Amino acid sequence: MSEFLISKLSELFGQNEYLFVYDVIAFLGWVNIVLALIAIALFTFRRINRHVYANQQPFLKKLNKPLSKIHPYIGIALIISAYIHGDLALGSMFRIHTGPLAWWIVVVMMLVALIGKKYRIKKWLPVHRVLAVLFVVSIVLHLFARNILG
Predict the structure, then answer these.
(1) Domain end: 91, 112, 132, which one?
(2) What is the DSSP string of 49-90?
(3) Among the three residues 46, 74, 91, which one is the final residue of a domain in this structure?
(4) How far apart are the C-alpha atoms of 149 and 24, rounded to whole Å?
(5) Which UniProt keywords apply (predicted)?
(6) Residue 74 half-sphere exposure, CB side, CA atoms within 13 Å?
(7) d(Cα 82, Cα 133) in Å, to the nearest integer?
(8) What letters, b where the CB count within 10 A reaches 16 and e where it falls short, cover 68-101?
């Protein structure tokens, strides 16, 4: 699917398909970084408001409301964008590599959140947060030691 999309987009932009795919991979990589930062911002701003301002910072409270609403959609967008990024770069998300590792962590995070909320499991949020830390570590590995796993 993504090869067909790249083929059509490279024709549309009048670029060499082989070179265009690398531009798309790089662009999607940056999109993924931005999406991950937006998703992590919710937790970060809540912690800053709680521990630095004793929940008294009105700007952070107002900022967290829309972030809370878009957080799940950001996660879904990240899963889709990262999948396309990985599919174009590796040809599969089932290879041993730091990129698919990060992608699978996000998928598990989403499943933990969905199952935890649906079945009212009390300890799903700490698990979600631990997975978020693992996700950040996997992204750092992906950025700086991409081929460490193979």
Answers:
(1) 91
(2) HHHTSTT--HHHHHHHHHHHHHHHHHHHHHHHHHHHHHHHHH
(3) 91
(4) 24
(5) Membrane, Transmembrane, Transmembrane helix
(6) 18
(7) 18
(8) eeebeebbebbbebbbbbbbbbeeebeeebbbbb
Residue with tokens 């878009």: 70
- Residue 97, SS3? coil
Range of the domain at 113: 97-150
109, 116, 115, 117: which is closest to 136 by C-alpha? Answer: 109
Count how many residues are written for the chain.
150
pLDDT digit string (tens) for the chain, length 150 residues:
677 878 888 898 888 888 899 999 999 999 999 999 999 999 999 999 999 999 999 999 999 999 999 999 999 999 999 999 999 999 877 888 899 999 999 999 999 999 999 999 999 999 999 999 999 999 999 999 987 876
Whether residues 138 and 69 fall in one domain: no
Sign, CA dihedral 32-79-97-18, equals negative
* CA atoms within 13 A of residue 8's CA, in its CB half-sphere: 5
Same domain for 31 and 103? no
